[in-house]
Write a structure and sequence with these properties.
- By secondary structure, this protein is an alpha/beta fold.
- The chain has a single domain, classed as Rossmann fold (3-Layer(aba) Sandwich), CATH 3.40.50.
- It is built from eight helices and nine strands.
- It has a seven-stranded parallel β-sheet with strand order 3-2-1-4-5-6-9, sandwiched between helices. The protein has a two-stranded parallel sheet with strand order 7-8.
- The radius of gyration is 18 Å and the shape is globular.
- The structure holds NADPH dihydro-nicotinamide-adenine-dinucleotide phosphate and 2-hydroxyethylsulfonic acid.
- The site of 2-hydroxyethylsulfonic acid has 6 residues, from loops.
- The site of NADPH dihydro-nicotinamide-adenine-dinucleotide phosphate has 31 residues, from helix 1, helix 4 and helix 6.
């Protein structure tokens, strides 16, 4: 489609799946993530289909994000679509046991990293009066669960920030969407459980979760709608996932 798409967290999961779908549509790609090896492998794979610029980038580093955007080669400079996807959960312990370092990393990546990418790319979109930002939220931003403490909090931020961007951008042809998926099988749980493959596998055992390709299909769909149509917030789950009832503590259960 000849658009320029900037995808953060493109080395795995949703980001890599989005890259593959946009490449198949003929869009130009800017792919960003920390790990060079998977990023370069993806760049090589997709370079057969489209123009690809890969950047080893930690979105938590404000200056590095600024330089990455300012130094985009001319062909990639006019970003039409920003997929703010880089993010992670770390740990599933209750708040009083969680690592403060892990909380910092989630806030720095899921909130501040997303802000840096937005703030450096958005002015160009406004100047061109053309663009679409897709922020990847989560069902965890709306529905609390034990151990979701700060991760869910960061995703609630993503949803409200997305709405506030819409408020600021009224009158401009720049769209903003918050896509909030539920459980999806990617490297997400391996990261959350710090490489414990057995624990990660349990999350997806005996069920069909969303796939990265499912989520990428939705991202490419919302960005392919007519330019006057803005999907504000979209929550998506596997048919196999739903809400639990509210928890009640009972003395008879002997819980402290
Ligand atoms: P993956 O772990 O498979 O992919 C996460 C991506 O984010 C990787 O490419 C990783 O690359 C990148 N990333 C992490 N930290 C940074 C950083 N500091 N700078 C740049 N890139 C970074 O997970 P998913 O694809 O599942 O997750 C993508 C997004 O979707 C996240 O925001 C996640 O919170 C959200 N999400 C996931 C759900 C799920 O169940 N899987 C459901 C709902 C939302 P690298 O390590 O190379 O930097
Ligand atoms: C990822 C989905 O339910 O593990 O955002 O928080 S969940």
């Amino acid at each position: 489609m000849n658009r320029t798409v900037f995808i953060t967290g493109a080395s795995a999961g949703f980001g890599a799946a989005c890259a593959r779908l946009y490449a198949a549509q003929g869009d130009r790609l800017v792919l960003a993530a920390r790990r060079e090896e998977p990023l370069q492998a993806l760049r090589k794979e997709l370079a057969r289909q489209t123009a690809v610029h890969a950047i080893a980038l930690d979105v938590r580093r404000r200056k590095a994000v600024q330089e990455a955007v300012e130094r985009l080669p001319a062909e990639f400079r006019e970003v039409d679509i920003l997929v703010n996807n880089a993010g992670l959960a770390l740990g599933l312990e209750p708040a009083h046991e969680m690592s403060l370092d892990d909380w910092d990393i989630m806030v720095d990546t899921n909130i501040k990293g997303l802000l840096y990418c937005t703030r450096f790319i958005l002015p160009g979109m406004v100047a061109r009066n053309r663009g679409h930002i897709v922020n990847i939220g989560s069902t965890a931003g709306a529905w609390p669960y034990p151990g979701g403490n700060v991760y869910g909090g960061t995703k609630a931020f993503v949803e409200q920030f997305s709405r506030n961007l819409r408020a600021d951008l009224l009158g401009k042809q720049v769209r903003v969407t918050c896509l909030a998926p539920g459980m999806a099988e990617t490297e997400f749980s391996m990261v959350r459980f710090k490489g414990d493959a057995a624990k990660a596998a349990q999350v997806y055992a005996d069920t069909q979760a969303l796939t990265a390709a499912d989520v990428a299909g939705i991202v490419t769909w919302v960005t392919g709608l007519p330019p006057h149509v803005n999907v504000n917030t979209l929550e998506v789950m596997s048919i196999n996932q739903s809400w639990g009832h509210l928890a009640v503590h009972r003395e008879a259960q002997g819980r402290e």
